[in-house]
Amino acid sequence: MLIAGKWVFITGASSGFGAAAARAFGAAGCHLLLGARRVPKLEEVAAMAKAAGAASVHFHALDVSSTASVEAFVAWVKTLTPRVDVLINNAGGAHGLDPVATAKDADWEAMVQSNFLGLLRVTRAVLPLLPHDAGASILNIGSIAGHQAYDGAAAYCGVKAAERSVTQALRFELNGTGIRVGSLDPGLAETEFSLIRFKGDAARAGKVYEGTVPLTGEDIAETLLWMASRPPHVCLDEVIIKPTDQAAIHKVYRRTKG
Ligand code: NDP
Ligand code: 8X3
To answer: Is residue 1 a part of any domain in this protein?
Structure first.
């Protein structure tokens, strides 16, 4: 499907996968609608996407944990375009790596609000703008954490498992509309993810990727672009993408130095 000229809304576009997706969809000639809380970062991403060849780039503050913010964002979108062709629900991440016994309410709440309720809120607000029978796509970012739980990540794994359920429910609800719904579920990828999880501890975040070759934002962006540009009758329901070095959550090959 020709993706040039399509309107693409990316949540969490200020860094990582979202920023890389802005550049990739921009290079493909799309109109971009970018949202996140850090507006100065969005401004940098927008300039990069414009330089890459985007048809137009628009950005606005968005906090997916607030219904008022989501509704204000979508009201602003409606002043620019009557339709959104591709919605990428990417905003989210992990907060902490504590076992249930010592985990903090604030971390749980942040993960539920952004990864789970945020995805629902944004989708509800954008659904009226998605055209029927025109190859529109809702692409949700899940994780291999939604397939396999691990220690210290009960809440994060829980919200990513919930993302899979939301994707599947939407697939049922939208059956017959021609709107595609898919989940892209990555493994280890080097972005700001671990820095946020470990509350700015760069040394601890760096250790997550030490000695191994993780995925990059560009790997995810290319896959999203491929999913959104399949012919309209093709829906990639669920795609798992992991580094070659990662056979499973706990099985990551690490090269020793020297
Ligand atoms: P980053 O931390 O680099 O990016 C996260 C993005 O989400 C930022 O743009 C951030 O923007 C945005 N965000 C977070 N909370 C909110 C909020 N309440 N409202 C709006 N935007 C928000 O990490 P990644 O790019 O790696 O993460 C993107 C997605 O991919 C997440 O859902 C994550 O769970 C998932 N994922 C990541 C993997 C990895 O290993 N990196 C693997 C599998 C899945 P801002 O702070 O400016 O609001
Ligand atoms: C991010 C991948 O394995 O760090 O969702 O949970 S993992």
So the answer is: no
